[in-house]
TrEMBL record:
Lineage, opening ranks: Bacteria, Bacillati, Actinomycetota, Actinomycetes, Kitasatosporales
Domain Oxidoreductase molybdopterin-binding: 2-138
InterPro entries: OxRdtase_Mopterin-bd_dom (IPR000572), OxRdtase_Mopterin-bd_sf (IPR036374)
Name of protein: Sulfite oxidase-like oxidoreductase
Species of provenance: Streptomyces stramineus
Top-level taxon in the UniProt lineage: Bacteria
Gene3D superfamilies: Oxidoreductase, molybdopterin-binding domain (3.90.420.10)
Amino acid sequence: MIEVGGVLTEALTLSVADLAELPRRELGADFHCVAGWSATGLLWEGAPFRTLYRTRVEPLLEPGTPISHVVFEGLDGYRSIALLEDALADDVLIADRLDGQPLDSDHGAPLRLVSPGQYGFVSTKHLCRVEFHTSEPPDPDRWLPIASHRRARVWHEERHGHLPGRVVRPVYRALIGPIRALSARGSRQEPR
């Protein structure tokens, strides 16, 4: 289930079956971590976020409501914030399958956001809530707010909020091992 809220005229809850009724798309895309590693040649499948927004969310907005940001939250409490224009990109999915198989817990089952044009920290796993905002919401969960770039666009190398990618790349690469260990530990725990 995904709870959809924020500035809507009424809350919306979507089941996995509800999302399966939306037009589906397969998307071949790479996944890039801000730390410097990439998983290439992945085949994701799911509902385009743009379709979800246009068909289920827009009808629940007061006319003229200027949505600017979207908050994606996972069952583990992790939150990512994206500009609406980035979330509406053609390659953004609410995915339930990877490489022809249903997502497993390591890859964000039952549903996850997939935004290949942005670094992986935007692609929230175990997606359970989506909120729409008219201004940038506060992000108390961000472990180091000044470090994260708000748009996190891969091809602009937006790894850090204030420093160029070439400066922070070596630091992030040094963190790959510890991040991998923490991620593996988290995937062995049951989601809330």
